[in-house]
Each structure stands twice: as C-alpha cells, then as structure tokens.
Amino acid sequence: MNVVKYILLITLMVFVAYHSIYFQKLDAVKASKGANVFQASQYAQTFWTLKLIPNLNNAIDIVYLNSQLSTDPAKTFSAYSHALGIGNLRYFLVKGKGLITSINEDDIDVLPDSSKQSIKIATEYIFGNAVRDATGLININEFNNTMDFNNVSAEINKIIRERILPSFKSKARKENRVEFVGAIELNKEHLDLSHIEVIPVQIKIMPY
Question: Is 3 contained in some domain?
C-alpha cells in the first residue's frame, strides 16, 4: 500500500512540475525583448516625415530674426525659440536665400539677401540637438530615459549627413545662390550674432 502511495505521489509531483515549466523558443524570447527596445532610427524617420518637413513653412526668415534679436532679444527668444530643457541654449527654425561667398572644408559661407552679415551652413560636422528641438514638436515625456532622447538627435543628424548634404556638396560652387531651411542654436545670455551656423534640413541651389 505504501508503494502505491509513493508511486502516486511521484506521479503527481512529475505532473505538477511538468505543467509548472514554460518552454519558449529562444528566437521568440529575443523577439519579445526586441519589441520593447526603443527604436531611435524609426522614431527619427517618423518625426522627420510627419512633423519636421510639414512644419518647415513655419521657419522664420533669418535676416528678419537677426534684426529682431538685435532690437529686442528677450521678446524674440520668447516668440520664436524652443528648448526642451532648462538653460540658456535655445533653438530656432530658420529659412533664407543667399549667395555662397566661400566653400570651406567643414561648411559654406552664405550672404543672405538684404544682409551684410554672412552665416555658415554646416556641411561636415552635423551634431547636437538643434534640429530635434527647433520645432518644439517633440515631447520629452515620450521618452523613458536620456539615452533614447539623445539617440533621436543622432539619428536625425544621420539623415542630414546621408540624405541632405551629399548631393548639395557635390554641386555647390562659389557664387551659387542657395535656398535653405534649417536649425540654429543661440545662447540667450551670451548672444553672438556674428557666428551663426545653420544645420540644414533642406538646401538647394537656385537657378540663375
């Protein structure tokens, strides 16, 4: 009788143990984990296509912006700049047309129409958060951590380096007229309008 009870007990234990263990294929586990990983590249592409490009019409003319910053910087920063953090760095979405006055290794100098002050358009080192933050259309609360947030900037800048600049750089020549839309970073406490650099989102050579 004890032997029968022992056998039944062992059988019950095996049954419970078998149904307590959950087996899943390794590929399925990896796929499940991957689904929860933030895809910065995908987010950047969606932002670029659905938010940034449709919003380019709201860019402020860079000559007008310089004029307003020279006369009433506090009001101009309040009206036209964006930032997703606390600090003096602010970002503007700008547009303009002008003449290429020189082509340098890392940028080009452009003299905007109706302006005596040249600006630089970056063509080599595309980094920072200017394009990500200039529209004010990204909500920082969408992100679980700072790394994901910064990776979006890196992916947006990658789009500019790989899709926007190569064809322009191959065709640009001194004395060409260009039309551009892009983002700039300015320090509201230490404002320097003599060294403005535009990170281009759109840029093209204008016909003569």
Answer: no
The pTM of this model reads 0.81
For the stretch 86-128, pLDDT in tens is: 789 999 999 999 999 999 999 999 999 999 999 999 999 999 9
SS3 125: coil
**How many other CB atoms are found less than 10 A from the CB of residue 20?**
7
- The type of residue at 38 is F
Q: How far apart are CA 186 and CA 148, in angstroms?
A: 24
**Tokens coding 174:** 């001194």
Task: Judge whether 25 lies within some domain.
Answer: no
Read off the pLDDT of residues 40-99 as tens digits, 9 standing for 90 and up. 999 999 999 999 999 999 999 999 999 999 999 999 999 999 998 778 999 999 999 999
Which CATH number goes with the domain that contains 49?
2.40.50.420
Q: 144 lies in which domain range? A: 40-205
- The domain tally of the chain equals 1
